[in-house]
Amino acid sequence: MVGFWIVLSSARAGGDQWDNPRYRLLLLPWMSLLAVWAIGFARQRHDPWLGRWLLVEAVFLLLFTNWYIERYTGFGIPIGLPVTALLVLIFTLLILAGGWWLDFRHKKRKTNNT
Q1: What confidence tens digit (pLDDT) does each residue in 54-76 have?
Q2: How many angstroms separate the CA atoms of 48 and 44, rounded?
């Protein structure tokens, strides 16, 4: 729901650089509450999926930061935008598939021991 309001505020504000930060700032406390709830929920249930999604986010930020810095400064690994997006997709699928595989393996091991 928070994401919906962010998109709506951005579209309503005209999407320009000057108005958007003000609207996003108004939604920052709600985004913070949602993040705190997600962390608490994941820790309470010992759910590994929050960590996996944070790893996906880290891969996204690492690859696109490299692309951006290389584009504007020439430092970094020269990877084009389509290849960067493809790498993000591949790593995301590997992380998620690996997570599902680990969960399946853990569940299978649990049922064999009982």
Answers
A1: 999 999 999 999 999 999 899 99
A2: 11
